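[worker-b] picked up task from shared queue
[worker-b] task type: protein-ligand structure
[worker-b] ligand name resolved to 2-acetamido-2-deoxy-beta-D-glucopyranose; SMILES cross-checked against name lookup, match
[worker-b] sequence length check passed
[worker-b] input payload:
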Amino acid sequence: MSLMEFPCPCKFHMPLLLLSIAITIFDPALATKDCYFPAIFNFGASNADTGGFAAAFQAPPSPNGQTFFHRPSGRLCDGRLIIDFMGQSIALPLLNPYLDSLGTNFTHGANFATVASTIIPQRSVVPLGVFSPFSLGVQVTQFRGGVFATLIPKEEYFHTALYTFDIGQNDLTAGFLGNATLQQVNASVPNIINNFTENVKNIYNLGARSFWIYNTGPIGCLPLILANFPSAEKDSYGCAKQYNAVAQNFNQKLKEALAQLRVNLALAAITYVDVYSAKYILFSNPEKYGFEHPHVACCGYGGDYNYNNNVGCGGTIKVNGTEIFVGSCENPSVRVIWDGIHYTEAANKVVFDKISTGKFSDPPIPLNMACYRNFPRH
Ligand SMILES: *[C@@H]1O[C@H](CO)[C@@H](O)[C@H](O)[C@H]1NC(C)=O
Ligand SMILES: *[C@@H]1O[C@H](CO)[C@@H](O)[C@H](O)[C@H]1NC(C)=O
Ligand SMILES: *[C@@H]1O[C@H](CO)[C@@H](O)[C@H](O)[C@H]1NC(C)=O
Ligand SMILES: *[C@@H]1O[C@H](CO)[C@@H](O)[C@H](O)[C@H]1NC(C)=O
Ligand SMILES: *[C@@H]1O[C@H](CO)[C@@H](O)[C@H](O)[C@H]1NC(C)=O
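[worker-b] inference finished, payload out:
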């Protein structure tokens, strides 16, 4: 393949040849131009689902979507997700879900994430069960067979695109809400991480080079865990300590695995993004960002955390013979948690602004430099 078949991977009109040398030798001194990502391919679960689950199974009802889209938008959120803010920040249109065949345009990438997706395939899957049948391996198969194989005219996009991953929390949830003990869930982490990295290798082998990989958030701060395990020991910010400890073990193992992957995959630029820490700040210092009641769901029903396993945001519940609609709190923009599991648009914006700087990343690469394998450390 000649050099000319590749698009200029940079926003400036640098001569192609010079640029390809810069990219080939990865000289950090030359790594000063913004990366140009013509497309994003995202793999993940509900934190990054922009309508995949809605297209395949069931659309989230109103008031989901009320803040930004002013109607349900396939997202479990009042507005935009981190992936939406990311796309907007690099001037890409909102990412189309792979599963949505209506008016879909994969020119600028595709989103394979679905609500309730896991890394390890689960036995209990929708429509009869709980988790998404589109586990990470299935998403990679969709990428390989459904997009990669049919977008040949834009083959160069597959090298220059940004590959993002936000998945793993549901693997922990499956254990916590199943019959596993904390120790058993914790002990399952190496297998989950190993499966994750095998999937990343498969995508690399198809030509992907720039990876932006989120760790898992502070699950012990969510109403889902706090309401289901009311006797769990809390840390000084009201989060369930042991549940977060398992998430942190997941993150430590992921970080180590990605360090190894950087050695194994010679051409990959792999950024580990510590979204756990960025999200945890919303619970440890909510006032700084204008938030209140960080552990209480905005859209939910009942109890200390405004969360009930039997009814979700936008559903109805019968209380003392009266049907009650489970709607939004008055002002989602001052709340961290939307529905007990997912964050509000306001929280997602704060988190995106933090992580895009590179301050939460290993190596500390900002989003606009995430195509460079070697980036000068400060
Ligand atoms: C897809 O989007 C691109 C850019 O946004 C546009 O140029 C192209 O015409 C669109 N294709 C279809 C089939 O709508
Ligand atoms: C937990 O164990 C019980 C009894 O063995 C079983 O009926 C139930 O399905 C299990 N729950 C999950 C989520 O695996
Ligand atoms: C989880 O396992 C790791 C070892 O892989 C251990 O260091 C850690 O203490 C365990 N944490 C919990 C909460 O069991
Ligand atoms: C991940 O685990 C599942 C279930 O064990 C397995 O079928 C699949 O092949 C694994 N994926 C990879 C890429 O190793
Ligand atoms: C339902 O009725 C009981 C008994 O009258 C009362 O104590 C309780 O507060 C009511 N619950 C709600 C949510 O109104």
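[worker-b] attaching auto-annotations
[worker-b] The first strand starts at residue 40 and ends at 44.
[worker-b] releasing lock
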